[in-house]
Structure formats: structure tokens, C-alpha cells
Specification:
By secondary structure, the protein is of the alpha+beta class. The protein has one domain. The protein is about 40% helix and about 20% strand. The chain has three helices and four strands. A four-stranded mixed β-sheet has the order 3-1-2-4. Helix 1 packs across helix 2 and helix 2 runs antiparallel to helix 3. The relative contact order is 0.23.
Length: about 100
């Protein structure tokens, strides 16, 4: 299974407490953020998002459930969905042009 197998139909864009906006394409992006950078490590929505994101990595059918749980955890932590795409920061790897 590749990351494209569990990519969400629509990415989630969150306004972070620092003022930047970040885009999450799939359950893997969300799980990494929940595990390594999440501002609070508690709450029922946080726990559910962790569980459903892990499950989504094991099966395609759970990807959209994980997306909804991730949004709920963000709201629980005081973050909101982004409304200004101009402040978007993407941490996706960029393709480099090959030098001929």
C-alpha cells in the first residue's frame, strides 16, 4: 500500500498557533503531526484521531474517518480550518529539475 492509497479526497488545512497554515494530504501526514508536533497530548478527540489515523494506514476504507477525526482533534486543541491559502506552508517533498 502506498501513501496514495490513503490520501484524503480533500486535504485539511489548519491554522497553527504560530500563525502559519499547514496542509495535510493524508492520514500519514496527520499521524506524524499528531505524534510529533501536536500542542496537547490529551483529549478524547486527540486519542480517536491517533487511533483512526493508524487504522487508515492499514486499510483504505478508514481514510475519510481519520480525516474527520483529525479535524475534530484540531478543533479540540483550539486550531481551526484555514481560510487564507496565501499563508499555506507545505512540507511535501518538492521535485527537483534534473540537470542535463
Amino acid at each position: 500500500m502506498t501513501e496514495y492509497d490513503f490520501t484524503w479526497n480533500r486535504p485539511v488545512e489548519l491554522e497553527l498557533p504560530c500563525g502559519l497554515t499547514r496542509r495535510f494530504q493524508n492520514a500519514y501526514d496527520a499521524l506524524d503531526f499528531l505524534d510529533a508536533e501536536w500542542p496537547t497530548r490529551r483529549g478524547p478527540a486527540y486519542e480517536r484521531a491517533m487511533r483512526l489515523c493508524r487504522n487508515a494506514l492499514r486499510g483504505v476504507r478508514a481514510a475519510e474517518l481519520a480525516r474527520a477525526a483529525f479535524i475534530a482533534a484540531a478543533e479540540e486543541a483550539g486550531m481551526r480550518l484555514a481560510s487564507d491559502p496565501g499563508r499555506l506552508v507545505s512540507f511535501l517533498p518538492q521535485r527537483r529539475n534534473a540537470v542535463a
